[in-house]
């Protein structure tokens, strides 16, 4: 017997910069993704180039009605997307918002509600306006708190009656590893000081808490959550040195959630600051703002890693954004991400025990090179049994966590429709239940095709998880 709650929020997730396209339409300004044609693997360019797959994405900007209809056919209860900051404030520091941008998200959310789908909105999902990155060096500058506050007040006022669930920043802890993509910081990673990096972190944490405070004031019925990149870290061996190495690595991820949930910096991160000569500039009122804590914690989960104190064994896994050592007991995806369904049960328990806040899995999925083939009805499909197996095994472990007593609000698969990869800006790395006819050379009709997993997920949602195979 499965035990998913009756009100469990099943759905899917995307980000504006990876699917909308229309990068220069209806008053939209440029954001950092427009000059990252190779994702995190390449250097930024001076201006957008048409080899950047994100400029067109999957053209959701013009096709959202058809796409949401497909999501509704699967039975989505919730659809996670982001608002592109530069659609609302083209430069980020503009005095007035762009009405055409505001109108687009009105229409998008209205279309969701037409089918009974709740929008789950990420306020900032790796989409810092390019002007803020170039002029202010992104979140290194305290000025961004004010620009973000203006943006937040604008969208809360506009969509407060249409959006119940909000996330302040996507994978906020990823700024430690990808400062440009996550924090709009133009300083190259090798030149960025720990002082500047953690000052940027402080500014984001204050901004996040400020958004939570404002959200609770303006929208008393809304739920405001944080969003972290989760990655269980196991000791490579039982040696105490490896156990402590894993603990320290965990601390660097946990502290973002600790601040969001507990409202203050934990002592272990203060020790790290002292030992690395980091002296945060904390302004009057910052500590009071941080006390405005989130209603729930959301997170992405794709893989687990190991950690060791043995420098000779400290080899970073292929495709791994957050460091760590490969686990010799786990298989890997085509992109070198280790597959660990039990890790999602583990991290759910760890987060619940630590924070006692409702948890929301807002990203989980398998990126793979799908093959479009003819189906028996004369159309086209993808026989993605590997994706079905991956998602089934992870959802079984989510159910185990619920049986453990963990409060889980919902589950949105990443890339519910094929989109452009954030890490590599490729199209061949596909996650969706819906195949989009677009390819890395820019070819394709952008036509949509239902994969085998489309019908599988429809059945899982309709049965509230009862059709999972254990």
Automatic annotation (TrEMBL):
**What do the Gene Ontology cellular component annotations say?**
cytosol
PROSITE patterns for the chain: GLYCOSYL_HYDROL_F1_1, GLYCOSYL_HYDROL_F1_2
> Record's superkingdom?
Bacteria
Which family is it part of?
A: Belongs to the glycosyl hydrolase 1 family.
Q: Which PANTHER family does this chain map to?
A: 6-PHOSPHO-BETA-GLUCOSIDASE ASCB-RELATED (PTHR10353:SF122), GLYCOSYL HYDROLASE (PTHR10353)
Keyword Hydrolase listed: yes
Annotated organism of origin: Pectinatus cerevisiiphilus
Q: What's a Pfam family this protein contains?
A: Glyco_hydro_1
Instruction: State whether keyword Protein biosynthesis applies.
Output: no
> Keywords assigned by UniProt?
Glycosidase, Hydrolase
Please list the GO biological process terms of this entry.
carbohydrate catabolic process
Cite a single GO MF annotation. Answer: beta-glucosidase activity
Please give the SUPFAM superfamilies that the UniProt record associates with this protein.
Answer: (Trans)glycosidases
| UniProt xrefs under NCBIfam families | PRK09593.1, PRK09852.1
Q: What is this protein called?
A: 6-phospho-beta-glucosidase
- Catalytic positions are 363
């Amino acid at each position: 017997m499965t035990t998913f709650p009756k009100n469990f929020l099943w759905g899917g997730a995307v980000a504006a910069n990876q699917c909308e396209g229309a990068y220069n339409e209806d008053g939209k300004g440029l954001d950092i993704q427009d000059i990252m044609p190779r994702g995190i693997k390449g250097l930024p360019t001076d201006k957008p180039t048409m080899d950047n797959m994100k400029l067109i994405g999957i053209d959701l900007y013009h096709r959202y009605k058809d796409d949401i209809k497909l999501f509704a056919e699967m039975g989505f209860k919730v659809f996670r997307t982001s608002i592109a900051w530069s659609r609302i404030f083209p430069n980020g520091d503009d005095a007035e918002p762009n009405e055409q941008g505001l109108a687009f998200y009105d229409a998008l959310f209205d279309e969701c509600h037409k089918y009974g789908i709740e929008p789950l909105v990420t306020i900032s999902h790796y989409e810092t306006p390019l002007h803020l990155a170039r002029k202010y060096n992104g979140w290194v500058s305290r000025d961004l708190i004010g620009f973000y506050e203006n943006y937040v007040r604008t969208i809360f006022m506009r969509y407060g009656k249409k959006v119940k669930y909000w996330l302040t920043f996507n994978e906020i802890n990823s700024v430690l590893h990808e400062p440009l993509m996550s924090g709009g910081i133009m300083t190259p990673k090798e030149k960025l000081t720990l002082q500047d990096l953690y000052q940027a972190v402080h500014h984001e944490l204050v901004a996040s808490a400020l958004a939570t405070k404002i959200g609770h004031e303006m929208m008393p019925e809304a739920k405001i959550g944080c969003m972290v990149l989760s990655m269980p870290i196991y000791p490579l061996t039982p040696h105490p040195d490896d156990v402590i190495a894993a603990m320290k690595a965990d601390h660097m991820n946990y502290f973002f959630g600790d601040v969001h949930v507990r409202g203050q910096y934990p002592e272990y991160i203060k020790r790290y600051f002292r030992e690395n000569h980091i002296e945060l500039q904390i302004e009057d009122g910052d500590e009071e703002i941080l006390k405005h804590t989130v209603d729930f914690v959301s997170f992405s989960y794709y893989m687990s890693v190991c950690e060791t104190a043995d420098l000779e064994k400290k080899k970073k896994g292929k495709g791994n954004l957050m460091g760590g050592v490969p686990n010799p007991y786990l298989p890997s995806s085509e992109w070198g991400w280790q597959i660990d369904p039990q890790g999602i049960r583990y991290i759910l328990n760890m987060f619940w025990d630590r924070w006692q806040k409702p948890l929301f899995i807002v990203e989980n999925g398998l990126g793979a090179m799908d093959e479009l083939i003819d189906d028996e009805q004369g159309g086209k499909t993808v026989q993605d049994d590997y994706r079905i197996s991956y998602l089934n095994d992870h959802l079984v472990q989510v159910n185990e966590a619920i049986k453990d007593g963990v409060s889980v609000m919902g589950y949105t698969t990443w890339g519910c429709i094929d989109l452009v990869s954030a890490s590599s800006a490729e199209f061949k790395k596909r996650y969706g239940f819906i195949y989009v006819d677009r390819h890395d050379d820019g070819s394709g009709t952008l036509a949509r095709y239902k994969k085998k997993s489309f019908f599988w997920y429809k059945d899982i949602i309709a049965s509230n998880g009862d059709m999972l195979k254990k």
